[in-house]
């Protein structure tokens, strides 16, 4: 028998403890207000990033449904626990999409369950199109959330331009449930593209590849994906162009001319092949199988190959023109090795898969850490929302 | 407009404060003579004026830090100032405050085309950021209409937008990193040349916080290569409802123009008399601009014009030359100036859901009649950011108050239909007391809690953003 408001969650995430699963915002607020122990806040539990939280699981997965969808205004209001797949289908029916292309972490992290839209924003998850369209946080227009005292709060709205008061919408995006539990989100959506082409160069070393990506991204031809990866056939450097048919053909031609000195390029225009290719890059498919710790680095693109070269035994997938590096390193590679390389250049590194006992998120400078701790203490004075995540001591 | 009473203790300690500031600032960086501080008594919202105690114009982050440390130590309020172009009173001083202006900090610190960013001191004007990279084909996207004068510091404080943000986003979407000095003088670095700064999104929080959390002295900004070309099309309709429908259909069709601008008849007539752009005399005019190569522009404009034709336009004119494009934009860009020629006006900045456009325009028309004040509309239709201009006579007793009352009613209407009080100008003092129409007390409480963390004594940019009554206890407790 399942108790009301509770559901058995996937074993790997929820452990043996039954998760609290409120079916309304009011019920969620009451649960947080009356909580006497730390809460482990989650959506579908498919993205266990950071040091595992020792606490009573609370999932938003039963807060579901689209509240409002105005295709002509490019806006969608949705409950936080709504599956990403449901959002995708709703938008696709009107020829629209989540332009920031959120990654699905299940393959990389070996998790099961249903990714939720709230989880996407709580972790600010963006895919290859982030370089052109923006990150998840750039598409979040408004939020409702329950803070650490059980107070329901809202910020932002459902319009594109809004500077009314402080932008807590951005603050909530990527806060991993440490400031509040998201209950409802207003999003900006965009039209899906009619056509896609991918221009692929083969055999480039990392440095040449990132330089090629930079050259293309610094052109007027609106690249929406820029990645460099290792395949069974050797290294591939991929550039994506999207839009109306003639425009895509024109820009694909221009990019080939621009990069003609780097060898013959292959142009792929088949929609399904393109979808698979960019989904593989988005979800880091190349590292799904096999051992090894996975690190996610955000760096200045031209620094990326040098940072990778400093880590023994590292393999890399470069996205965002080199600015996003997925590193697979031998198991238990010391965090200091990677952090030292990243810190010297500037940027940040997060341990996504592997032993996270020593911390997963980038350590912050003392003044920034003080601000972050101060904000958490205000939003969650009792320290019950995901304690230990994002650096603050449990 | 109520402002907090000046603190007599601070006024009495003026000479001590000036001594401490003069101990490390060069003479030209410290202004305290009343004849000179008067230049700083207001910003673009000229209806309200108050000279500050002193003005500091630092040349470096270190000087900003030292000034803040001293003011914090002595409990002196600080009003950060960019170029002073705020239309919301965001840089209005109080009598007991020190203005810290970044006007002397205008250097380009680093330009990196491979990684597509520029790092500047924040006193640099918006347009001169683009100016620093345009010879190499690049530009900085946010383009507020004050871009010739406004500073990046103010753009960050107000999260400024512009006509082209439908495609390129506003300041927050183009800001990669900052050097920011906290009220106690601590210098912080957030983000940089990489995407998505680590930790909580403090960059997103600072952007649009109206100078109440810290003073941003340096900024890393995303730059983009300029498009190959751009061309507008002019579409005229005999009803604003149909124009609104056309906007919605264009967006739904999957074309993403860089700009969709809307002007109504009063605005068209005023602009036409002023700039002679050749606009038709109709109820609603749309300027839709797309970018790309010539062929790409043709392809997009074809789709847009097909949609426009379905709604039976009274005018449909595609620009055929660079000169014609310029003229089309000249009308729009001189709209505010044109209105200013014929009248005093107040410019509002509410945003509404795009689909509410016809209803809101109809209601504004009715309210305009009720109040007996003309309202002209010119705005960014693609994103619902309205700029109703209320015409009034500053020399006529009671007209300003009547105008402000109508303005408040229009903004409340924006909120009622699901929009907000301000889309790009900021709250400042102008919309401060309307905040409770947008937010409930707990929503404001948590925003004020953010300020508690960054500025525990509530000294930075006093009396802005929050209704005075809501923030009273905090300011008094800090004194």
TrEMBL record, chain B:
Q: What InterPro entries does its record include?
A: FAD-bd_oxidored_4_C (IPR004113), FAD-bd_PCMH (IPR016166), FAD-bd_PCMH-like_sf (IPR036318), FAD-bd_PCMH_sub2 (IPR016169), FAD-linked_Oxase-like_C (IPR016164), FAD-linked_OxidoTrans_Type4 (IPR051914), Oxid_FAD_bind_N (IPR006094), Vanillyl_alc_oxidase_C-sub2 (IPR016171)
By its UniProt entry, which PROSITE patterns does this protein fall under? FAD_PCMH
Q: Which GO terms describe its molecular function?
A: FAD binding; oxidoreductase activity
Q: What Pfam families does the database record attribute to this sequence?
A: FAD-oxidase_C, FAD_binding_4
Q: Which Gene3D superfamilies match?
A: 3.30.465.10, 3.30.70.2740, Vanillyl-alcohol Oxidase, Chain A, domain 4
Annotated FAD-binding PCMH-type domain residues: 48-226
Organism phylogeny = Bacteria, Pseudomonadati, Pseudomonadota, Alphaproteobacteria, Rhodobacterales
What are its cofactors? FAD
Q: What is this protein called?
A: Glycolate oxidase subunit GlcD
Q: What UniProt keywords apply to this chain's record, in alphabetical order? A: FAD, Flavoprotein, Oxidoreductase
